[in-house]
């Protein structure tokens, strides 16, 4: 094969978004392209059936991967290859796809630098015009789901430094389908959507229409997340499944049976378990006769439809949840043409976001909606994030696996871990990895809910952020479908904020921007970030090899990624940019002050108390409780930015934290009587709506804790008792309304 590596940003006329590098591989039976958004990047390799425009497909997926990868260390990448001849026989096809995959992977590694004994070794027989570039990882994707071991065998053949961390998910890694990690991550988003609507999706019956079948990872695992699902309709590339009034428990068991088969389709579904009027219909049929029950379930009048017409009816079915676990773009905006969707295969079945009749969308699959389609659905009141938010669990799990394997390789090199013990150790750490991944999904969904609820009142902050991201050459509003200044002014007049898909894009780009800033600062080199590293890895890894964390070759990138996600998931999309503009501080200085404030007030403990509240509690009350903590952290962050000389080191906070806790415990006895009466009324109100009393008390006194740094500082400098100083502050503040 022939392989060529391009510095894409230097090639005139490249379609947007322009990758940093791309490798083109050409052989007699296969050709392909791999696009990377940065030096440290990751993404899957797929077998593409779009021979005419596979680069356009890969480019769209790389863009989605770049936004999805904000939760992990590398930025986005994607690869795809096409076959020149496709055999009709299924067994022969699998062999041909595997052969093409091997040729493609070898072509990529032929141009990739290696790392031997800590030194860069360029590939042999290659004319090299670029700098050192040894970080190259891949993942499974469409058509290559079972080929991670194949890729790792090639890496071993080449002596590539990452070993079986080159392709995550192999026999010595985490099986995404077995863990259901992508579907479980997307389920966190879906649960949040329903919670915002006042529904506990884990307990109440949810009607569902879907894209996919039970043999698929994301669709199959997704439809097993609750025994209360009523799957009304679904389709894949072969069949259409209709069950107008399913029994939740019986249909759940049948879906599980299909999922556990080596291979299955909707044709394998036990017809005796399908409710009256339902059935399974081939997409090759000329027409499908519709029973009265199906017409009622789908709210359509036609007595017969073509398969394509029926699929469109399924997509716009009046259900609670539309779950996308398939491949293809099925929803666009009414203002878009089918040609703009770059998916000719599904032109005949695609619908508009304005026509959807579901309440919630879960995007387990990639590119199921155009961004304009998402926004159109959100504008009519639909609950939807983006694919890169919902299905980020898979890539998050893969990256954690890679970084864990790199750590364990260090232990093996130093003789602290036997090579044959490693696989068993990785398996023992599975639950630790999974819980960290799912919490990432939970936090992203949670902060988007908070942002949606408040964005209308802060549109100027989002405009400032978009200008910053444009200035840093990260964001194109036109490409991402984000509003310009004129539209924001119109929305402000109408009391309209940003929509969830728009906020998801801004969250992703803000994280990228902050990650770059942290990497370029001295934050990853400070001793106090050891806590960040220890939190990132499973407890067992830290217990045995915590002393090696500082030597991890991606230590700085891991720290920057975790901190960027933590800051913006905790404090919101515009937090760093707002404080930077208002105080004249750098982004790194804002992060440092935030980390001290966060630790001083035990913010994580406070947030966790609220996150553990029953899912049936009022989402508006939960947001109120969370936002009060956010406001406290922001106020104290501002205090330290205004007085940086008084900001303690993170590892020297014990005294200040103890004083803060003592002050908080004393506040109810120190506030003036009139204010205490007012606070008691608010506590009573919160308790009446289900908030535990201790959380209610903490909440109402948060506004007084904003004074804590000043009170503690005065007490320290004068030698006065903290409570005496606090009492004076509170009396004077109450008397003069300050």
Helix % is 40-55%
Q: Ranges with pLDDT <50 over ≥5 residues?
A: none
Question: Would you tell me the structural class of the helices and strands?
Answer: alpha/beta
- What's the architecture of the domain at 198-382 in CATH terms? 3-Layer(aba) Sandwich
- Termini separation (Å)? 74 Å
Radius of gyration: 27 Å
CATH topology of the domain at 198-382: Rossmann fold
Instruction: Report the major sheet.
Output: 6 strands, mixed
Shape: globular
Q: How would you describe the overall organization of this protein?
A:
With 738 residues, this protein is an alpha/beta fold. Among the domains are: 2-171, Rossmann fold (3-Layer(aba) Sandwich), CATH 3.40.50.10860; 198-382, NAD(P)-binding Rossmann-like Domain (Rossmann fold, 3-Layer(aba) Sandwich), CATH 3.40.50; 584-738, no CATH class. 51% of the residues lie in helices and 10% in strands. The strands form 5 sheets. Strands 1, 2, 3, 4, 5 and 6 form a 6-stranded mixed β-sheet that branches. Helix 26 packs across helix 31 (722-736). The longest helix has 25 residues, at 430-454. The model has no long low-confidence stretch (mean pLDDT 92).
């Amino acid at each position: 094969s022939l392989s060529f590596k391009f510095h894409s940003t230097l090639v005139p006329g490249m379609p947007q978004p322009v990758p940093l590098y791309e490798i083109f591989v050409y052989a007699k039976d296969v050709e392909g392209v791999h696009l990377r958004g940065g030096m440290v990047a990751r993404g899957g390799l797929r077998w593409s059936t779009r021979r005419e425009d596979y680069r356009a497909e890969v480019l769209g997926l790389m863009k989605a991967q770049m936004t999805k990868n904000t939760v992990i260390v590398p930025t986005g990448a994607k690869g795809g290859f096409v076959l020149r001849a496709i055999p009709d026989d299924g067994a022969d096809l699998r062999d041909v796809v595997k052969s093409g995959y091997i040729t493609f992977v070898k072509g990529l590694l032929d141009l990739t630098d290696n790392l031997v004994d800590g030194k860069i070794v360029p590939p042999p027989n290659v004319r090299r015009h670029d700098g050192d570039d040894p970080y190259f990882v891949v993942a499974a994707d469409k058509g290559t789901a079972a080929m991670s071991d194949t890729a790792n065998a090639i890496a071993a053949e080449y002596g590539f430094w990452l070993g079986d961390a080159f392709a995550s998910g192999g026999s010595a890694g985490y099986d995404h389908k077995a863990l259901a990690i992508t579907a479980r991550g997307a389920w966190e988003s879906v649960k949040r959507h329903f919670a915002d609507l006042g529904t506990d999706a884990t307990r109440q019956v949810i009607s569902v229409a879907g894209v996919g079948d039970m043999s698929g990872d994301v669709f199959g695992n997704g439809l097993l997340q609750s025994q209360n699902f009523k799957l009304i309709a679904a389709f894949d590339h072969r069949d259409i499944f209709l069950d107008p009034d399913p029994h939740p428990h019986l249909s759940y068991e049948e879906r599980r049976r299909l999922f556990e088969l080596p291979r299955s389709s909707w044709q394998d579904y036990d017809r005796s378990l399908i409710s009256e009027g339902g059935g399974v219909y081939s997409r090759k049929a000329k027409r499908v006769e519709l029973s009265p029950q199906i017409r009622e379930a789908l709210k359509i009048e036609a007595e017969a439809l073509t398969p394509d017409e029926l699929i469109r009816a399924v997509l716009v079915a009046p259900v609670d949840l539309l779950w996308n676990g398939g491949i293809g773009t099925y929803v666009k905006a009414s203002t878009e043409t089918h040609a703009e969707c770059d998916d000719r295969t599904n032109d005949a079945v695609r619908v508009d976001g304005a026509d959807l009749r579901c309440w919630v969308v879960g995007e387990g699959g990639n590119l199921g909606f155009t961004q304009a389609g998402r926004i159109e659905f959100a504008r009519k009141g639909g609950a939807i994030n983006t694919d890169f938010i919902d299905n980020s669990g898979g890539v998050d799990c893969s990256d954690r696996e890679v970084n864990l394997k790199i750590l364990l390789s260090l232990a093996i090199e130093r003789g602290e871990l036997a090579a044959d013990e490693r696989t068993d150790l990785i398996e023992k750490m599975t639950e630790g990895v999974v819980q960290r991944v799912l919490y990432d999904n939970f936090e992203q969904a949670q902060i988007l809910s908070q942002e949606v609820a408040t964005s209308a009142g802060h549109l100027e902050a989002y405009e400032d952020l978009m200008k910053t991201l444009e200035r840093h050459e990260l964001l194109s509003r036109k490409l991402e479908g984000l509003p310009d200044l004129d539209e924001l002014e119109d929305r402000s007049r109408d009391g309209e904020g940003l929509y969830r898909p728009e906020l998801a894009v801004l969250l992703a780009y803000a994280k990228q921007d902050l990650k770059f800033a942290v990497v370029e600062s001295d934050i990853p080199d400070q001793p106090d970030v050891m806590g960040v590293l220890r939190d990132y890895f499973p407890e067992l890894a830290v217990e045995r090899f915590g002393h090696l964390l500082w030597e991890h070759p991606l230590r700085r990138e891991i720290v920057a990624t975790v901190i960027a996600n933590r800051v913006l998931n905790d404090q919101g999309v515009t937090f760093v940019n707002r404080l930077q503009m208002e105080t004249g501080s750098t982004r790194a200085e804002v992060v440092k002050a935030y980390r001290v404030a966060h630790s001083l007030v035990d913010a994580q403990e406070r947030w966790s108390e609220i996150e553990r509240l029953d899912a049936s509690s009022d989402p508006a009350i939960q947001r109120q409780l969370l936002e009060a903590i956010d406001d406290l952290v922001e106020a104290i962050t501002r205090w330290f930015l205004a007085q940086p000389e008084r900001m303690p080191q993170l590892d020297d906070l014990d005294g200040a934290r103890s004083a803060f806790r003592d002050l908080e415990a004393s506040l109810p006895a120190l506030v003036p009587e009139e204010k205490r009466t007012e606070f008691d009324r608010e506590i009573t109100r919160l308790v009446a709506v289900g908030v535990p009393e201790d959380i209610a008390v903490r909440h109402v006194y948060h506004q007084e804790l904003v004074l804590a740094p000043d009170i503690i500082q005065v007490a320290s400098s004068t030698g006065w008792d903290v409570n005496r100083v606090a009492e004076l502050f509170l009396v004077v503040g109450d008397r003069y309304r300050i």
